[in-house]
User: Which sequence fits this backbone?
């Protein structure tokens, strides 16, 4: 369905994402944290856990499709495609905390970047994985 200006109808796109999120997707909680001291990473964690039941209420929004190699699981895929996923997830919410200590001998900076744990709808295909934010 096309509108008069040649673009796809918003309604068609919304219905396609809603159907995918509602019927064909598993729900996962995904979170990320990186801590660095003086610009050197000292702690990094990516947490992925399957939701015991679908996330409700949800409003499907943006999605990202990542290439899947050899039927790999979600955690392995997110580790391999970490930059692409973090850019996608950071567009929703990102927390940055910085603590600077200035001494005459040894100035120090401690930074923490956190993507809060949120529920995502994940649809697995043979060659790709589609991740949709359900906020």
Assistant:
């Amino acid at each position: 369905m096309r509108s008069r200006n040649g673009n796809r109808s918003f309604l068609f796109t919304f219905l396609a994402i809603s159907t995918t999120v509602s019927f064909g997707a598993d729900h996962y909680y995904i979170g990320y944290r990186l801590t660095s001291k003086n610009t050197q990473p000292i702690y990094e964690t990516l947490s992925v856990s399957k939701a015991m039941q679908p996330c409700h209420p949800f409003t499907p929004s943006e999605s990202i499709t990542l290439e899947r190699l050899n039927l790999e699981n979600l955690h392995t895929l997110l580790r391999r495609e970490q930059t692409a996923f973090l850019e996608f997830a950071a567009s929703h919410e990102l927390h940055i905390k910085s603590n600077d200590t200035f001494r005459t001998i040894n100035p120090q900076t401690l930074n923490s970047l956190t993507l809060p744990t949120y529920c995502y709808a994940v649809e697995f295909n043979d060659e790709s994985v589609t991740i949709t934010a359900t906020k």
In short: Strands lie at 26-37, 40-50, 63-67, 95-101, 108-124, 128-133. The CA atoms of residues 64 and 88 lie 7 Å apart.
